[in-house]
Structure formats: structure tokens, C-alpha cells
Design a protein that fits this description.
- This is Alpha-ketoglutarate-dependent dioxygenase AlkB.
- InterPro entries: AlkB-like (IPR027450), AlkB-like_sf (IPR037151), ALKBH3 (IPR032854), Oxoglu/Fe-dep_dioxygenase_dom (IPR005123).
- Keywords: Dioxygenase, DNA damage, DNA repair, Iron, Magnesium, Metal-binding, Oxidoreductase.
- Its cofactor is Fe(2+).
- This protein has 3 helices and 14 strands.
- By secondary structure, it is an alpha+beta fold.
- A 6-stranded antiparallel sheet has the order 1-12-9-14-7-4. A 4-stranded antiparallel sheet has the order 8-13-10-11. Strands 2-3 form a two-stranded antiparallel ribbon.
- Strand 2 and strand 3 form a beta hairpin.
């Protein structure tokens, strides 16, 4: 059964060509505090090199991939083999799937250690994700600004503060028509953990 995600009472944050929805308090503060501590301590965080403009550079954040076995996921010139789902990730995936009606096979985890860790403009449009992928993005920890802009025009820029326990759902044409980033900031921020649930075909 589909829940409220695609109902008319939920505001689409994109003006055209795609759908993006924000649920600021998807998990309670208490539950979010618990998940943040668990994820920080138990996930297999590491810093991976990616290819940018023909050069290998270290990503300005730590990452970990979990998911269904024997289904690697690649982006920006790297291929990651998923680790087995942890109990906490399974619990979160179940809650998000029940709410959205979308099935997920993998979760790419990102740890932004401070305001200098970032993610540049990109689209999650790899062929293995299918034509119009749905990406569920969970945030725990420090609030970071999530920015969207139209891919072709570089206009219609949208700033969305992603807070502790919030769920951002991107679906429809959003990954083809819009790109997004987490910019650096000079603010003295603590760490942020971001989980991006996705379905590999």
C-alpha cells in the first residue's frame, strides 16, 4: 500500500520535471540520537578515491556501502562491493519502505566529519538504477544545506536544510533533470551521517 508520499497534501519541492519531498521528523529525536551513535561506531567507514577530470582524488568524506550480496555499485570511476546489511540498517530500510512503498536493495552511507567535508554537483542516474530511480536520503547529526539546481540551465537553485532525523525522497525525473550537492561551509559543525537508500536493477 502506498502511503502519503505521493499524495497531494505532500509538497513537491521541485517546480517542474521531477518530485522531491521532505519529511523533517521522520524519526524521533531519541531514535535519531540512537541511530547516529550506532552508525558512527559500527559501520565500516573508509575514504575512497574517485576520478575527477581524469585524476584520482580522495573523496572529501567517508563512505560505506551495504546491500544485497553480489551486486556491486559503481560511480565516478570506483566500484564498491556491498557489505551485509546490519540490523540497524535493516530496521531503517523497513520503516522507509513501509512509508514510501518503494523497495530498496542498497544503501550508500556518507560520513561528513565537519563542515569541510562535502559532495559536489552530481546526479544519481547510473544505468543500474533504472529510468526514474527513487532515492531515499536519511540524515543524522549536524544540519547541512542540500542544494538542487536544474541540470541543463543551472538555474532554479533550491536550498534545503537537512536536519537530524529527516527523510528526503527524490523520485520521478529528478535524478535526470536536476543535480544536487552538499557544499562546504566555514561554520563550525559536528559530524553528519547520510544514508541514501536506492534500488539496483
Amino acid at each position: 500500500m502506498q502511503h502519503s508520499l505521493f499524495h497531494s497534501d505532500t509538497k513537491n519541492l521541485l517546480p517542474f520535471q521531477g518530485e522531491t519531498f521532505l519529511y523533517p521528523n521522520f524519526f524521533t529525536r531519541e531514535k535519531s540520537d540512537f541511530y547516529f551513535q550506532q552508525l558512527a561506531e559500527t559501520l565500516a567507514w573508509k575514504q575512497e578515491p574517485i576520478r575527477m577530470f581524469g585524476k584520482l582524488v580522495m573523496q572529501p568524506r567517508l563512505t560505506a556501502l551495504y546491500g544485497d550480496p553480489d551486486r556491486p555499485y559503481g560511480y565516478s570511476g570506483i566500484s564498491m562491493v556491498p557489505l551485509d546489511w546490519t540490523d540497524d540498517l535493516v530496521e531503517m530500510r523497513k520503516a522507509i519502505e513501509e512509508f514510501t512503498g518503494v523497495r530498496f536493495t542498497h544503501v550508500l552511507c556518507n560520513l561528513y566529519r565537519d563542515g569541510q567535508d562535502s559532495m559536489g554537483w552530481h546526479r544519481d542516474n547510473e544505468a543500474v538504477l533504472g529510468k526514474n530511480p527513487s532515492i531515499a536520503s536519511m540524515t543524522f547529526g549536524a544540519t547541512r544545506m542540500f542544494q538542487l539546481r536544474h541540470y541543463e540551465t543551472k538555474g532554479n537553485k533550491i536550498d534545503i536544510p537537512l536536519t537530524h532525523g529527516s527523510l528526503l525522497m527524490m523520485t520521478g525525473e529528478s535524478q535526470h533533470q536536476w543535480e544536487h550537492q552538499i557544499p562546504k561551509t566555514k561554520k563550525n559543525l559536528g559530524p553528519r551521517i547520510n544514508l541514501t537508500f536506492r534500488k539496483l536493477l
